[in-house]
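Example 9 (inverse folding). The structure is encoded as follows.
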């Protein structure tokens, strides 16, 4: 049903009905986005995502009947960009698909008009080719991780609430579910901090949200 709906909306869609087939399909072509069920036969959806994340930062939307907070946190923590629970509306999925593709296309197309490079400490972001380096080494970020970091680096003195981050990054109304923000911040810290348990780049402002720190202080 979902495949037929997305085809009617003008997308090219390839469906796989078990994890083994999904990996063969993904690595046998080029895809802009993955919609992934967690409960797949042969190879689980989580294992499929782990395998994809080893080689790709393609946006991944989990679509699952597992709807507990721990399930969502676990899925997002392993690298998903979004998490939709069943039952779902087709138009709701379509909106999430378009939002994720829009962000990815913005990165690949460029079009930044501000300063080409933004830096903080040993961290440097190139807004023209959408790359991030730390100490000269490339840091692979997903689209949402990149967008969070870009927002913070471009507004280095601003404190963002979780509601503001969710609205700006997910482009959706904030309904009090802060797990998506927390997990993406945690993943981002793992990639850019020397010690994610003692962050210097992304600081928590307790009771409010997040801001950039100054690693040179």
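The amino acid assigned to each position is listed next.
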């Amino acid at each position: 049903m979902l495949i037929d709906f997305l085809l009617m909306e003008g997308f090219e869609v390839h469906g796989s009905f078990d994890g083994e087939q999904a990996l063969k399909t993904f690595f046998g072509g080029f895809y802009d986005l993955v919609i992934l069920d967690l409960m797949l036969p042969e190879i689980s959806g989580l294992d499929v995502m782990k395998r994809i994340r080893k080689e790709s930062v393609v946006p991944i939307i989990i679509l699952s009947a597992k709807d507990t907070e721990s399930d969502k946190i676990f899925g997002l923590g392993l690298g998903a960009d979004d998490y939709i629970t069943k039952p779902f509306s087709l138009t709701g999925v379509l909106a999430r698909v378009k939002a994720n593709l829009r962000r990815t296309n913005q990165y690949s197309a460029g079009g930044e008009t501000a300063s080409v490079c933004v830096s903080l400490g040993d961290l440097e972001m190139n807004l023209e080719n959408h790359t991030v380096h730390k100490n000269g080494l490339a840091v692979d970020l997903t689209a949402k991780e990149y967008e969070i970091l870009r927002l913070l680096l471009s507004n280095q003195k601003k404190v963002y609430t979780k509601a503001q981050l969710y609205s700006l990054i997910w482009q959706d109304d904030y309904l009090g579910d802060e797990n998506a923000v927390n997990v993406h911040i945690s993943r981002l810290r793992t990639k850019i901090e020397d010690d994610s348990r003692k962050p210097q780049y992304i600081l928590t402002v307790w009771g409010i949200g997040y801001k950039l720190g100054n690693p040179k202080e």
